[in-house]
Write a structure and sequence with these properties.
- The longest helix is centred in the last third of the chain and has 20 residues.
- The protein folds into two domains: 245 residues, FAD/NAD(P)-binding domain (3-Layer(bba) Sandwich), CATH 3.50.50.60; 157 residues, Cholesterol Oxidase, domain 2.
- The mean pLDDT is 96.
- It is built from twelve helices and 20 strands.
- The protein is globular, with a radius of gyration of 22 Å.
- The strands form five sheets. Strands 1, 2, 3, 9, 10, 11, 12 and 20 form an eight-stranded mixed beta sheet that branches. It has a six-stranded antiparallel beta sheet with strand order 7-14-15-16-13-19, with helices on one face. Strands 4-5 form a two-stranded antiparallel sheet.
- The protein is of the alpha/beta class.
Length: 504
């Protein structure tokens, strides 16, 4: 059963074996797995309930309704890095591109080697990835929905001999509408509100929307429930109170709001690591002007990848957005920018993200809001420059007339020679226009309680029965989109909860 804030006219008191905070990639997995085992589960979501009929191609309406703070979440630094977060049923899975990657084997081995995490070896994690992929309908992008934009990038990569291919996405019946990040109007992209949440509800889990958790309840060193407010949908202000008593509390509010809630409650921070070690996968977007008609809005906006440079800390992944969002990232102002937009049908675009070594931080800011800082180190800036250069190189190989690299002092490139010029030049972080989508690492797991927040199964070292099941547990950046990794590790944690905390 899914409840909305408007359904209540009085304070709410609930009890369950498990209460889950957050409905993005992690929380619904735990809710479904434990409800299926016969346990009573309550899941809480701060944002609104959504259905496919609610989605619109109007980006401004979508940002206001389905994103936190209208999509304006920002990490402060030089450069500042914006990273939009979903705030609705399904969390960011509702408004992401649906890209699915397993945690790379080398990353799992690194975590085993450097952080002492046992039981996460590739062969032991494989069953979890397979289970998740089956439930979310993970499938490679097919030629029918790839779109011309993706075809152009693959053509350029093939011309240069680079490793590349179609991305795998959580889809069933995708029509290639091109508006994944605004919410899929066809239901083809299988966000958690279309798979894990209905399954959890089928097995008896209760789902509440429009509820903001403010307090984690602890008794005798163990989590025993949560308290918070039922919000008015229009104003966002508290309207009523709610409380849930539970044997287990699962924090799955994401890598910004999970640590923030711990900091507000002054819990689980004996190591001093809560809110630290923030990684973002900073990304860039490069556009190109082609002779051919691209019509890039037709087809999957993130359809292909180039992983040729993964060992250098760079992953190239497709990105294309509508004209309202394209105009501001093209160079120039006024008439020159307008002239470019008149050629929108001939524009191609591709994105890239870097495997960052920069470590940002989430602090408790004014009025209880997060203060997010992220000062990019020179090594990561160099990766950003490489990402731009490699993407530009691919576009020129595919026949681009001009490339627009989003570098302040190089608004456009007209030949591959300028790619070499960019690589040999002195580029500062402030010269580049970064954006990110994958915050992680702020409640990292480890084998040593002195330098981690949670143990290898996501349970707090200090507060028993308090688990974290989202991207904040990852000890380092993944190098790939984190959604499937979050789900697989959440499933692993749910199995542990069933066996060690709830069985019998």
């Amino acid at each position: 059963m899914i409840y909305e804030g408007k359904d209540f006219s009085a304070d709410v008191q609930e009890s369950a074996e498990v209460v889950v905070i957050g409905s993005g990639a992690g929380g619904p997995v735990v809710a479904k797995e434990l409800a299926e085992q016969g346990h009573s589960v309550v899941m809480l979501e701060e944002g609104p309930k959504v259905e496919t009929k609610d989605f619109t191609p109007d980006p401004f309406r979508a940002f206001r309704r389905f994103y936190r703070d209208g999509g304006t979440t920002m990490a402060l630094g030089r450069p500042a890095v914006p990273f939009p977060l979903g705030r609705c049923l399904g969390g960011t899975t509702t408004v992401n591109s649906g890209t699915c990657f397993r945690t790379p084997d080398k990353i799992l081995r690194k975590w085993r080697r450097e952080f002492g995490l046992e039981g996460i070896e590739p062969e032991k994690m494989r069953p979890y990835f397979e289970r998740v992929e089956k439930i979310i309908d993970a499938n490679p992008v097919t030629p029918e929905i790839m779109g011309r934009n993706g075809e152009i990038v693959l053509r350029g990569a093939k011309q240069l001999g680079y490793s590349s291919g179609p991305l795998t996405r959580n889809t069933r019946g995708c029509r290639g509408c091109g508006v994944c990040t605004l919410g899929c109007p066809s239901g083809g992209k299988r966000a958690t509100f279309l798979n894990y949440i209905p399954r959890a509800s089928h097995f008896g889990a209760k789902v509440y929307c429009d509820l903001r958790v403010s307090k984690l309840l602890v008794k005798n060193g163990a989590a025993v429930g949560v308290e918070g407010a039922i919000l008015d949908r229009n104003s966002g202000k508290p309207r009523l109170k709610f409380s849930v008593s539970a044997k287990l509390v699962v924090l799955a509010a994401g890598a910004i709001y999970s640590p923030l809630l711990l900091l507000k409650n002054k819990l689980a921070n004996g190591s001093g690591q809560v809110g630290k070690n923030l990684r973002l996968h900073p990304g860039i977007r490069v556009c190109a002007l082609m002779d051919e008609v691209v019509d890039g809005w037709r087809g999957v906006p993130q359809a292909v990848f180039v992983d040729e440079f993964a060992d250098e800390g760079v992953m190239l992944e497709g990105v294309f957005v509508g004209p309202v969002l394209t105009g501001p990232v093209l160079p120039y102002f006024g008439e020159k920018n307008k002239e470019l937009m008149f050629k929108y049908k001939n524009l191609a675009a591709h994105g890239a993200m870097i495997f960052d070594e920069t470590r940002g931080r989430v602090r408790l800011g004014l009025r209880g809001r997060p203060l997010i800082t992220y000062q990019m180190i020179p090594e990561d800036v160099k990766k950003g420059v490489k990402a731009i250069a490699y993407t530009a190189e691919i576009f020129f190989a595919a026949g681009a007339k001009k490339v627009y690299p989003t570098v302040t002092w190089m608004p456009e490139m007209t030949s591959p020679r300028q790619v070499r010029e960019l690589l040999s030049g002195r580029v500062k972080g402030a010269d580049l226009e970064f954006m990110a989508f994958h915050p992680m690492g702020t409640c990292r797991m480890g084998a040593d309680r002195r330098d981690s927040v949670v143990d290898p199964y996501g349970e707090s070292w200090e507060v028993k029965n308090l688990f974290v099941c989202d991207a904040s547990i990852f000890p380092s950046c993944l190098g790939v989109n984190p959604m499937e990794s979050i789900m697989a590790f959440a499933n692993r944690s749910a199995d542990y909860m069933q066996e060690m905390k709830l069985k019998g």
